[in-house]
Amino acid sequence: MTPYDLPEFTEPAPSGENEAILVASGDLRLSANQKCWPAQEAMEKQLVAALAREGITVRRGHDYDPVQKHGFISSQRMGMDIFQKIHPDARVIVAESVWQYSHHVLAGLRSHRGPILTVANWSGQWPGLVGLLNLNGSLTKAGVPYSTIWSENFDDEFFLNGIRQWIYEGRIDHDASHVRALDAGKLPAAEAKLGRALAAQLAHEKAILGVFDEGCMGMYNAIIDDEMLNAMGVYKERLSQSALVAAMRRVSDQEAQAVRDWLDQRGVTFRTGSDPATELTDDQIREQCRMYIAALRMADAFGCAAVGIQYQQGLKDMAPASDLVEGLLNNPERPPAYHAETGAELYAGKALPHFNEVDEGAALDALVTNRVWSALGHDPSTTLHDVRWGEHFTGNGVDDYVWVFMISGAAPASHFVGGYAGAISERQPPMFFPFGGGTLKGVGKPGEIVWSRVYVMDGGLHVDIGRGHVVTLPEEETERRWRATDYAWPIVHGVVNGVTRDQFMGRHKANHIQIAYAPDAASADRALAAKAAMFEAMGVAVHLCGAVPLG
Fold first, then answer.
1. What is the spatial distance between Cα 238 and Cα 523, in angstroms, rounded to a whole number?
2. 199-245: per-residue pLDDT in tens?
3. Candidate CATH numbers 3.90.1150.10, 3.40.50.10940, 2.60.40.10, 3.30.420.10; the one for domain 19-169
4. Which of 9, 26, 150, 197 is deepest in the core (most CB within 10 A)?
5. How much helix, strand and coil, in percent to the nearest 5, is found in the chain?
6. Comparing C-alpha atoms, which of 478, 479, 482, 466 is closest to residue 528?
């Protein structure tokens, strides 16, 4: 009998007792990895030096590539190959100063047995905080134990205490005293009744999320299994972005121009130029207007209650960015678009909630918000934002920690100071979007907000929800913060009521935060109560965060 040829592999040698292996997940786009590498390199030097002072030698798990001109893990396969050479019991540090694709390292981390630490620099530049929070949310969904920490210069007491605990105990504990489970019995009666009625209506009538190219940005945490959604009456229609491009081709020049004319009449400022490689052009805007009409027509054809466009991988090589489209969709006041055959106006007088980057946690949240806010008679415009960065600010009547919330797309002009007249459209950076396309940029108007995040943990759906407000900062401070991040994106000066910076970072399970405005503080409290009641009735575990006037 001929014996089988058994595969052979050798387990990597164990790491030293005082050694840690560092890996860095990056983008899929070579141009982004090359552009962002200097910031990552500088951050790693600071981190390695800080750990050396604590007696830990850091060894990189993968080398700088002189051909690619960066040292990031740039694909899932590359990440798998790298982790084959790392002992499963080694200390592993995932260091991030950039936006990264979590699936590059998820496979390796999912089977890793040793202590895992995710680290980011406290900066809005590329940014590592957004990448860190996405990876943390992905690890949470996957049930992988990990610790996390962040720092500006890697020499502050908070950071040093954290890494010392990780070195000696294999974990970092963060203060979560701001979080408590919803006591449904303490909900105000009217809002509880409304929320439960809306949940029952959703379960009976059912709703469809139009999902364009699910998961193509590597955001594992942003995918919610059908079984979880279906139980509450929510289903997915999986759509292709190539079909969206095909639908764009069926939109006439006259239809696209009508959208542009509407925006011009409302006072939107388009900062255009003549070089399509580096500047926003009228042709790019016209293509975005086609996409806007095409998205509404596809959503109508499939009966979608909300849609999400991935907008980066694939689409970026075929069309201008979808950012302008997304912001328009999230606003009930938007250019009219019509059915190609019947001529009927599509979603007349209504927002079609758009969840940027096909973040399905944001999709479910936007769907619930739209129904609760509409039932209460509030403007149902809603959006997600990156948890980008922040600093304490004193002055202009403000003395608080003020976050920079921003997203390239999906922000409605109704959230801006001045509405459409206060909105600007600027070209997306060429390193991310070779075919250009404009954003919908503005400054978040001051006011009361409800913030939230839906995520997967311990095999079930959860939502963190709280109150906040948007403040007005001096023009020069707004400009400084803009210049420290993505200048073409909308910006919100957000305060999360009753939650410190480090409490928020230690708890938050996603790179995105959902916000919706209410007319005043009392209205926001009632809206939060109704939203919490609806989620609770849908079977989602509700966690109140910070200063929330509920049990």
1. 36
2. 999 999 999 999 999 987 889 999 999 999 999 999 999 999 999 99
3. 3.40.50.10940
4. 26
5. 40, 25, 40
6. 466
